[in-house]
Amino acid sequence: MLRIDCPWCGTRDEAEFKYGGDATAKRPPAEGDGAAFYEFVYDRGNPKGWHQEWWHHVAGCRQWLKVVRHTVTHEIRSVAKATDDVTVPPA
After folding, report:
1. CA atoms of 71 and 86, how far apart (whole Å)
2. Taking the model in full, what pTM does it have?
């Protein structure tokens, strides 16, 4: 079980959160072609190492968070507000 340190609610169990995906993926512009949107939705990497992710605190404050998590060990390096810049350590 992961323990996520919510900036608003404090440390909580993973069960209170919902994974929201890759926080580094950039949505293509609305006027872009279908191929770019297809790649954004379906063509995702499977990173090994440190990764920036979206997590939603659904059973708490309902805020979106940026979490830097290691995809192999599940260690959480940092948790920040959705609007904050975060640093991802090198893999």
Report:
1. 17
2. 0.88
